[in-house]
Structure formats: structure tokens, C-alpha cells
């Protein structure tokens, strides 16, 4: 049961591939096939067959020496986390693409008037490009490079990190097609989630969605502005022209966000079922604070403080920026209100909190905010804790806590939650591309249901994580625990870079 893929001009060499419903064979089983044909002459032709396993790509990452002698090799984690983002790339891949099982995809992504919207990252285990979480991810990753460039340099990943964040920044720029026009999504989530296939094999029906003056989205416009502003700071010396372009677009987008207010998910129904925004004020503070840091202009600081929401932060995510706002604004103004709010936030998050908002802890020590992406929330806050410590606020306490939460993700419970890293890592992340065999073998729901490891190791991806009782099952169909996403790795990678930086500076040696 197979389909012809190619044959030579003389018809003596043929390539066949299994049909989808017969495409999976497990070790220890048997594989039977026959080929029929007609021939002329008195004796049949002879032939040989070569069988190729499309479920094994042979791709491995060479070992990385642990030169720091730390419990976990932060250099290896940083390298592999960046590789995860490489695996999420959409569009025309560069000649030095390090992921051999990925190829060009979605080359016809365009806006309603034919604007080029190729590039960017696929959001998670699906093949949609969601602009809001992509921009939020880019902002956090850029922040980690701003604050902890020494970590990336010492780990040998500085060049790779510049390439990593430039990829989404280029796409964000493409999305800003008019002064008050911004594309925020490419692909229909409903249709995409109704199929299971690699991005290289997607159909051409990829609608694009945008915000305008009449259909505003202050949150996503301000988040794009924040990402571009961080990008302008990151590339200020490396690529001044690119930096200036990013800052120009950031200023325009922030003005758009302030002038035409509203939540983007009220304007773009296609995003509401997946990344519904709770409010936009925190993004207005976020974008204004970053623009003030980049420009020094007082008006941006005034905007940021005007929209600031007092009180402890719920957490940090693609939707909530309050903790980051506190860090930025305290660093800029040294006002007690921001320090007090930071301390109140970490009183809730660290063990022993007694308030109504204090987080529960799992038996093995995970600060548990929500089930869906549990490790994402604690990793994001570990990054915030390390940044807060840099301001001289409870540095030892916050650094120790951040290290404990990242340690949980890397293996303190006896298993790693990072694909391709450490002891007993996940092997079945809920991720279409890595679950599909090598091209041109077919991919369908059969691959989603198959019981073995994914054919491709999705190096560096942080899975959603365990429940409040530390229960976790490595199974592809459990998208709550085993989904991966760009935003899952953002604060996590930032925290790992922060811990690496502490070793580089001899602040935290073990």
C-alpha cells in the first residue's frame, strides 16, 4: 500500500512511500510488500530494493562540555533552546538552517492586499502564526540578551541568539503595513487544528487578520512596539540601520496603540479562541517603558506611569506584563511603589506566602499557577526574579528561588521536562512537525496517535509540565501537559541565561 514519489527517466529506478494508514512500523514487527509489473521477453527482470526508515532522521546535537561544573549544563540548555526556535521557523529557511528535518514552508503567506507575510515562527505544536504571543516572546528573549549578553557570549551562543530574535523581528516589521494597520495572525486556528500535518505540506488557505483604526488592538500594537524597541536596543551597535528601522516602527505602533484603544481579540475573532487578551493597559505601560528606555523621552515614561496598575502581579505571560513593568519602572524612577509591588508579587510566589493570592506548591517544589503550561509560568517568574535581584531587591533570596524553579524543569524531580536534555526527557511532545516522519513520507492523525517517540527530537523545547501533584505523563495526545510553544521557552531561556550570567560573574558558583 504505497504511492509513487519519483522514477528515473529510463524507468529503472522507482521510489515509493507508504500510504498514511500503513506508514508506521515498529521495531520487532514485520514488513511485507510486493511490487507488480509487466515485462517483455522470456525471462523476468531482476531488481533490488533499498528500504529507508523515514522515522529516524539521525540528527543529534554534539555534546557540550559543562565548563562551569554546575549541576545542569546551562550552555547546553541555551544552545538547545535556540534550536527549538529554529525548528519553529516559517518561510524560506536560510542556507545554514541547523534543523535538517525542516524545509521551506508557507511561502505564500500574504495579507489581504498581497503583502508579504512570510517568515516568523509557528506558535506551538500547530502551524499558525499568532502575532501577540510571538511578539511577547521576542520581547522577553531580547530582554535576556540585553541583560545577560555575557551568558550568551560565554556559552558560545551570542551569534545564534542574534539570529534567533532577528527572525521574528523581520516578520513583525512586515506585519506593519500602514501607519494604523497591523497584521496579527496568519492561518485559521480552527482549520489548522483540524488536521495533523507538517508545515511543509500545508494547503494554501492561510487567511491573514489585522487590526486597524476601526478595529483596534492596543495590546498587540503596544506589544509589537515593545518587541521592536528591545530589538532596536539589541541591534544598536551590531546593525544600526536595522535598529533605527525597528525604533521608527515601534514609535508609530505605540502611537497607534494609544490613539485607537481596545483589545485586539475583540477586533479579531480568529484570535479570541486561542489568545484572548484580558486588558490592554499593561501593554501600554510595557511599550511606553521600553520606548523611554530606548529614547529617554519623558513623554513615554509619563504614558507608562499613567497606565500602570498597582498591586501584586498575577504572573508573567504573553497576556500579562505587570511584573516586567515594575522592574522597568523601578529601575527608571526608583519610586517605592514599584519596589513594594515587586515585593508583594514575590511574597505571593515564594514559599511561605500567607495572602489569599499566595501560590500553592507541588510536593516536589513547583510553584503552581495553572495547569496549562505550569512550567511556563514559574519559568517566566524565575526570569523576573533574577531581573529583580539585579536591582538589589532581595538578591540572594530571589536568585535561590529562581534557581530552584529552573532546577525543577531541568531534572530535580528525577526527570527533565526539556526535550533532548538531561535524564528521561520528554519524547512525545505535542508538536506536528516533529511527530511527522521525514519528507516525503506521509503525516496524518495516525502519527499523532502512534505510541513511540517522535521521529524528530525537538531539542530544547520546554513542555507544559506536571499538575499540582507533580503528575506528568509523556504522551503526545495530552496537549495540556505536553504542548510546546514559543512563549513557553521565552522566560525559561531568559532565566537560564540569568543563572549562567551569575556564574560568569562569580556571584553564584554552584
TrEMBL record:
Parts forming coiled coils: none
Reaction catalysis annotation: Endohydrolysis of (1->4)-beta-D-glucosidic linkages in cellulose, lichenin and cereal beta-D-glucans
PROSITE patterns linked to this entry: GH9_2 (PS00592), GH9_3 (PS00698)
Any one GO biological process: cellulose catabolic process
Organism superkingdom: Eukaryota
InterPro entries the record matches: 6-hairpin_glycosidase_sf (IPR008928), 6hp_glycosidase-like_sf (IPR012341), Glyco_hydro_9 (IPR001701), Glyco_hydro_9_Asp/Glu_AS (IPR033126), Glyco_hydro_9_His_AS (IPR018221)
A molecular-function term among this protein's GO annotations: cellulase activity
Active-site residues annotated for this sequence: 430, 474, 483
This enzyme's EC code(s): 3.2.1.4
The entry's keywords: Carbohydrate metabolism, Cellulose degradation, Glycosidase, Hydrolase, Polysaccharide degradation
Top EC class, one word: hydrolase
Cross-referenced Pfam families: Glyco_hydro_9 (PF00759)
Domain named Glycoside hydrolase family: residues: 74-495
Family: Belongs to the glycosyl hydrolase 9 (cellulase E) family.
PANTHER family: ENDO-1,4-BETA-GLUCANASE
UniProt name for this protein: Endoglucanase
Amino acid at each position: 500500500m504505497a504511492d509513487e514519489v519519483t522514477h528515473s527517466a529510463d524507468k529503472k529506478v522507482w521510489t515509493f512511500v507508504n500510504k498514511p494508514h500503513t506508514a508506521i512500523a515498529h521495531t520487532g514487527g514485520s514488513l511485507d510488500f510486493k511490487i507488480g509489473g509487466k515485462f517483455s521477453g522470456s525471462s523476468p527482470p531482476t531488481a533490488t530494493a533499498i528500504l529507508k526508515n523515514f522515522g529516524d532522521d539521525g540528527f543529534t546535537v554534539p555534546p557540550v562540555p559543562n565548563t562551569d561544573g554546575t549541576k545542569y549544563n546551562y550552555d547546553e540548555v541555551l544552545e538547545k533552546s535556540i534550536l527549538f526556535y529554529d525548528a519553529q521557523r516559517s518561510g524560506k529557511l536560510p542556507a545554514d538552517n541547523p534543523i535538517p528535518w525542516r524545509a521551506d514552508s508557507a511561502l505564500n503567506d500574504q495579507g489581504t492586499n498581497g503583502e508579504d507575510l512570510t517568515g516568523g515562527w509557528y506558535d506551538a505544536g500547530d502551524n499558525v502564526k499568532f502575532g501577540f504571543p510571538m511578539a511577547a516572546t521576542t520581547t522577553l528573549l531580547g530582554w535576556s540578551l540585553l541583560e545577560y549578553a555575557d551568558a550568551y557570549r560565554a556559552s558560545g551562543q551570542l551569534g545564534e541568539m542574534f539570529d534567533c530574535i532577528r527572525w521574528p523581528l523581520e516578520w513583525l516589521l512586515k506585519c506593519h503595513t500602514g501607519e494604523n494597520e497591523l497584521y496579527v495572525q496568519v492561518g485559521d486556528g480552527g482549520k489548522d487544528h483540524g488536521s495533523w500535518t507538517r508545515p511543509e505540506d500545508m494547503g494554501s488557505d492561510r487567511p491573514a487578520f489585522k487590526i486597524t483604526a476601526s478595529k483596534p488592538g492596543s495590546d498587540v500594537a503596544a506589544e509589537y512596539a515593545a518587541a521592536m524597541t528591545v530589538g532596536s536596543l539589541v541591534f544598536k551597535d551590531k546593525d544600526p540601520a536595522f535598529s533605527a528601522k525597528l525604533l521608527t516602527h515601534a514609535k508609530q505602533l505605540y502611537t497607534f496603540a494609544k490613539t485607537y484603544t481596545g483589545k485586539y481579540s475583540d477586533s479579531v475573532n480568529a484570535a479570541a479562541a486561542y489568545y484572548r487578551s484580558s486588558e490592554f493597559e499593561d501593554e501600554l505601560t510595557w511599550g511606553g517603558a521600553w520606548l523611554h528606555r530606548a529614547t529617554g523621552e519623558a513623554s513615554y515614561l509619563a504614558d507608562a506611569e499613567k497606565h500602570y496598575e498597582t498591586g501584586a502581579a498575577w504572573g508573567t505571560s504573553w497576556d500579562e506584563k505587570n511584573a516586567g513593568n515594575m522592574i522597568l519602572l523601578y529601575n527608571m524612577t526608583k519610586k517605592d511603589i514599584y519596589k513594594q509591588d515587586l515585593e508583594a508579587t514575590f511574597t505571593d510566589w515564594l514559599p511561605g506566602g500567607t495572602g489569599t493570592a499566595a501560590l500553592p506548591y507541588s510536593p516536589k517544589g513547583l510553584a503552581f499557577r495553572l495547569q496549562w503550561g505550569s512550567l511556563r509560568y514559574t519559568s517566566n517568574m524565575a526570569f523576573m526574579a533574577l531581573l529583580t535581584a539585579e536591582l538589589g531587591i532581595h538578591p540572594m533570596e530571589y536568585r535561590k528561588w529562581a534557581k530552584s524553579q529552573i532546577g525543577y524543569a531541568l531534572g530535580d524531580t528525577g526527570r527533565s521536562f526539556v526535550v533532548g536534555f538531561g535524564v528521561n526527557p520528554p519524547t512525545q511532545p505535542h508538536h506536528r512537525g516533529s511527530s511527522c516522519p521525514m519528507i516525503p513520507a506521509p503525516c496524518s492523525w495516525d502519527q499523532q496517535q502512534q505510541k513511540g517517540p517522535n521521529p524528530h527530537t525537538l531539542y530544547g523545547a520546554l513542555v507544559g509540565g506536571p499538575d499540582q501533584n507533580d503528575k506528568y505523563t509523556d504522551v503526545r495526545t495530552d496537549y495540556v501537559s505536553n504542548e510546546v510553544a514559543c512563549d513557553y521557552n521565552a522566560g525559561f531561556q531568559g532565566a537560564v541565561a540569568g543563572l549562567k550570567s551569575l556564574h560568569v560573574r562569580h556571584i553564584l558558583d554552584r
